[in-house]
Amino acid sequence: MTQEKLLELLGDMSLQEKIDQLLQLNENFYTGNEQEVATGPARDMGITEEDVKCAGSILGSYGAKKTKKIQDDYMAKQPHHIPMLFMMDVIHGMKTIFPAPIAQGAAFDPNIAKMACDIAAREAAVTGLHCTFSPMVDLVRDARWGRVVESTGEDPYLNSLYAKASVEGFQGESGDLTEKFKIASCVKHFAGYGAAEAGRDYNTVEMSRPAFREYYLKSYKAGIDAKAALVMTSFNTVEGVPASANKWLMRDILRKEMGFDGVLISDYAAIEETIYHGVSEDKREAAKKCIEAGVDIDMMSNCYAANLKKLVEDGEIDEKLIDEGALRVLELKNKLGLFENPYKDADEKLEKTMILSEPHRIAAREAAARTFVLLKNDKDDSGFSVLPLREEKKTAFIGPFVDSKDIMSSWAVTGDVSSCVSVGQAARENFGKKVLFAKGCEILGDDVHVPSFMGEVHYPQTEEEKEKLFAEAVELAKTVENVVLFLGEDTSQTGEAASRGFLDIPEVQSELLKRVHAVNKNIAVVLFTGRPLDLREVSKLSRSILVVWRPGTEGGHAIVDVLTGKRGPCGKLPMSFPYCVGQEPIHYDRLATGRFAEPGTKEKFKSRYIDMPTEPLYPFGFGLTYTDITMSEVKLDRNEMTKDGKITATVTLKNIGDVVGVETLQLYIKDVKASIARPMRQLKGFEKVELMPGNAREIGFEITADKLSFVDGDGNEVLEKGDFEVYVGFDSTTENKASFVLK
Ligand code: GLC
Question: What is the DSSP letter of 564?
Fold first, then answer.
């Protein structure tokens, strides 16, 4: 439809019809009959049947047949037969579930995210979905926050690359959303949601404007620059004002400065929640404040539907604000081609053939293998490490995750646990009877775990049931040379509303580890987790640790591929693993302070703890391979540059091991002195380098002015002359350093 026709349509709509385009309701309003809806969800939420009939979009409804029927029914009822938008949280896969975003970040390869989002879009599109509430690009620095699992970690640069790749994966690069199997993406949660104080979900966010701009806004901007069609508001306050009612944030920063002209949708009931934040008197004021801030869609509250008409009639708001929002919603529908084809790509046949197809499973398996991070792999006296497993060494697979299929994430809401490949299944396929198995314990032991979205339910165990499982595992561990222990967080321990005050593996699993270690020291721990954990005890009692995060549908196959060496581990930590929770929030790009404490110093008046180290147990960017790759001293081709110039930093890598390896070479830069204190180093580039045994390769990084500037509190890009340091290495602690001057 042409813009002119759209404007004509808008001009023809009643005020309430335009307001209803700003309403998003969940599927419950569209699956019952009218009577049920009127006396059920509609009554509960205080909206009229007319609102239900004319709502602009639906949250959480998918399935080709179902969405077509709803579209048919409601377009017929609509005075102007306007198609509805179908939106859903397709975060890291639709039915073929890819590794959780924190895992994808560990691959240090945005193409993984692009591929995962492309395949997710295909599967989502054939089920009738038009938009996904993804990518979540919030910067995170506190592992206590449960939504770390949905992020790509603590670095603004890495997050920005993933934000761009994800939007392009969902939407394509042409920006033409009518393209087959493309869906509109939504950058969330704007803004700063990941900085919730104390890592407690939905909590207050307080930070300086320079920090907000330099670290937190970068990844949203990357997603918006990639043409994300939607942005979602965050639950938190920004400078004391809830994001959904924050005109400075939404009108000045998002719309004007970042140039976002797409649809701004509130998070779930976030408009109503401005009342509970204490900045809106009631739903009427909430509606006024948020429409003035420029929020277009009210997700699952009746603030807009029940109040905007009256606010216009009472002259408290200008009808233009409604028109602005309604037009953006109509424009999004038009960008998706819904006026010409209201079903877009909904296709019952393709649902059967494309979803969980072999090519999609292979892609998920390949992706997962590249996200795993090998944190340790100590050799024994005979010079052998437990991993990769060797046929001649009798091995046992022990732990509650051996046969668990619950290895997606709590945001894989459209995924089916039953379609996941467990480690046990993959191991039996691969090893036959050569590997022996024991459960050892339940994932959570004493707590009853009632899954939030999906997953297996675990019930409390009696002491004898626990002892029986422990005993089986210990007896088995006595009879083998190597034990691989599959441990980790339960799905219910990560994700939204799952902040944790402790970062330990469940107690019952820690007991299992201790008992197995008492009879067999050759332990490799495979760790399922949605966040950095406190691995002091795991590290003490094991010789190898492989972090597999939440690996998704093909997790079992991918884990066996890496355990056997068919695929070498090549992941790097996208987030620091702390010594313990007391270090949180912790991130590598910290400021020096006036009293920087050298690692291990005992000097009193330094910025350190008196009862634990200051450094994380495993730093950002860290991860081992199965081989041994050396690196030469970093060399610069010159030691000064102007703002239009460039410097090339080079190192030579050599694989001196006996298997192929993929190393992730990282470039960090430090601005030694500036008008504001600058981080001790910041990631400014990285490159995956695959080397066969004996191979060597020279790798160069180009350093240009854009890698040296920073953003000040007013949003200005600032480049200051002076000394800079370059660090090139295999993680954020590298001391392989050179210096230059910006003239
Ligand atoms: C949730 C989440 C948001 C999600 C939305 C819709 O509360 O905060 O990320 O997209 O509701 O499910």
Answer: T
